[in-house]
User: Which sequence fits this backbone?
């Protein structure tokens, strides 16, 4: 458990928060620019000495201002991966990694095994200047892991990567977390990255915690409040591939079938996280089996909010909440009411990963 109870004055506001973060999960930290995300990571790593209060990891105190205790950054066994890779340009890739390994006393993570896991063996003898952004971030992550951290802090490591590289890096982080069980804090201002990677989500605003809980629940709260574009977050099980049609059959909550274009999946994934925007979902009173729209499911209307010429509707399929935006004209024409059972439908292409 990572326990934090701190205050830290900044130019425009102060970091002021108290929380306990489970370390058996990947935790996302989300907020707009200037919310205090990077400052929080620096405080945890011991790089900001202005903070007062208490920080401990698994009952090991790193900061205890009342007892004048401050553990130096190099003794906390915390690694950071930044937006830019920050590799040593005068060293080869292999030398960058060996540098981190020499600083590690425990040597529980074996060099050759990590190189294979990360898929970076072909890069070891290359000049850093020849690497792509995604390759540099892989090396930066491998170097951070070779120091065998008790906590891995990731400060927007995907921000400079293209879509394909982001997807690969997220899959790699999941793989690393599962294999080595290293606690991770992942900072991003992109909700799609948060949704794809993290298990729990902490939302910061002006140095204070506004929301904290399971990622899907927090995303739905943010959608409901209008803090992000309204979207539904889904965790789905892969049922079967249908390559002849270019689609994948998925299952929601153990029984409801949904479909996703196959090109969104990488490798042999058994679980997939998806989102669907509220404007991509339509509502119909009756289910027509002759529709070309593949994703159709029965739901109950829980909330109806009228806003100008639109209606924002919250519906549920069992325990899964969906957010739907339709025109006020459609709401009136369909005569939709609370607790009414209707059908929602959306195209396979409306389901997105990243």
Assistant:
């Amino acid at each position: 458990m990572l326990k934090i109870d701190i205050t830290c004055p900044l130019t425009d506001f102060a970091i002021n928060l108290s929380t306990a973060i489970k370390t058996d999960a990947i935790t996302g930290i989300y907020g707009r620019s200037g919310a205090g995300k990077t400052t929080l990571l620096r405080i945890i790593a011991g790089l900001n000495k202005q903070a007062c209060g208490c920080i401990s990891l698994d009952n090991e105190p790193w900061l205890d201002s009342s007892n004048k205790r401050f553990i130096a950054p190099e003794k906390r066994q915390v690694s950071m991966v930044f937006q830019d890779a920050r590799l040593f340009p005068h060293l080869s890739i292999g030398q960058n990694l060996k540098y981190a390994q020499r600083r590690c006393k425990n040597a529980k993570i074996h060099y050759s095994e990590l190189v294979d896991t990360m898929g970076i063996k072909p890069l070891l003898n290359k000049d850093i200047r020849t690497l792509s952004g995604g390759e540099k971030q892989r090396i930066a992550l491998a170097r951070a892991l070779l120091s065998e951290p008790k906590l891995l802090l990731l400060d927007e490591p995907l921000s400079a990567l293209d879509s394909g590289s982001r997807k690969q890096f997220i899959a790699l982080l999941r793989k690393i977390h599962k294999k080595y069980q290293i606690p991770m804090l992942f900072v991003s201002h992109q909700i799609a990255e948060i949704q794809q990677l993290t298990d729990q989500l902490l939302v910061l605003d002006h140095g204070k915690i506004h929301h904290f809980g399971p990622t899907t629940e927090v995303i739905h709260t943010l959608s409901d409040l209008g803090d992000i574009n309204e979207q539904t977050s889904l965790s789905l099980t892969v049922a079967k591939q249908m390559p002849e049609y270019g689609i994948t059959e998925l299952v929601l909550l153990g029984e409801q079938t949904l479909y996703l274009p196959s090109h969104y999946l990488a490798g042999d994934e058994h679980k997939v996280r998806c989102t669907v925007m509220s404007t991509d979902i339509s509502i119909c009173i009756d289910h027509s089996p002759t529709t070309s729209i593949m994703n159709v499911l029965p739901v109950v209307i829980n909330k109806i909010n009228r806003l100008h010429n639109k209606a924002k509707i919250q519906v549920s399929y069992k325990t899964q909440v969906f957010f739907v935006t339709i025109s006020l004209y459609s709401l009136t024409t369909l005569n939709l009411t609370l607790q009414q059972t209707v059908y929602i439908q959306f195209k396979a292409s409306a389901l997105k990963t990243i």
Observations:
- The mean pLDDT is 90.
